[in-house]
Amino acid sequence: MSKYTRIAITTAAVLATSVFLSGCGLFGKDKEALDPPPKQNVSHLDENEDLDSLTDTETSGEEQVEAVMTDLYLIDKNGLVVGQSLPLPKTNSVAKQALEYLVADGKISDILPNGFRTVLPAGTNVDVDIQDGKAIVDFSEEFKNYQASDEQKILQAVTWTLTQFDTVDSVELRVNGYPLTEMPVGGTPISEDGLTRADGINTGFADVVDVTNTRPLTVYYLAQGLDNYYYVPVTTRVSNLEEDNIKAVIDQLVEGPTIEASLMTVLDGDALLLDDPTIKDGVVTLNFNEEILGNSETKEISTETLQSLVLSLTEQAGIESVAVMVNGDGGLVNEDGEELTEPVTRPEKVNTGSF
Prior knowledge:
By secondary structure, this protein is of the alpha+beta class.
């Protein structure tokens, strides 16, 4: 077993959040995460979708507020940047609205999850213009009123919040119309090519001596919140000598997190790939030993194990879903006893509350 904190696979169903799992996808639903905002119809929408297609409705004479589930990257109680999928009002400017909900003491106040805080200073005004895949973000002067310790977190939260939209690949930051070449408080350099997810999130390179001979890799671990468990993306670095990114992801999940004791892995330390992973038509197939299972007799794989695998592996280009086998056989079942007859796709939204 790893020296890092772990969750026993056999108790994951008791400890972790209640998550609905189907053979073709994973959709998280946390227990008692938040008190639900009143009367909301929730939809999922990309930046380039037609918002006019969403219409307000009434039920029993009461008007319902149309809401769109949007990923907002916030700072948790451990100082980590974590996406939380929250219902925001329907708007024609979803990218701008998403950043407005990152402003402290602002619009997010009524739906801010317990144990989380926003990344942008109070009073900050924001405008967003998307051109050829780049989101040009113009902040007001109040943007400069942040703590230096939050500088990297601001860059990561803004970048990952905006790049959830299909029309955004990179982000350029400005203050009062002037492009930033470095952050105003701590002086973190900003590339003229813009910020992207390739820059990483929750980076922990302190134990890496030779950065030039390593490459970044993002995996998802589990963290315990005040009301629930949630998934945290962490960008680490792996040796360039380890050529296979799929194997590298599995190794990182088995070894466990190295930057934060509050993070946990649900993969047993003895879990082992028996064959090289194969990729065909966007599906990666993994053949594990029985240590990947929560219950070897029933061939049950825990939701948390499968979720961590799917979230981490679909970060890799060209991978859309994951098929898991044990000792060369399929026929695994989820925690509801349902057979996983299809590869599992990435959930549309990751950390969702009960709305």
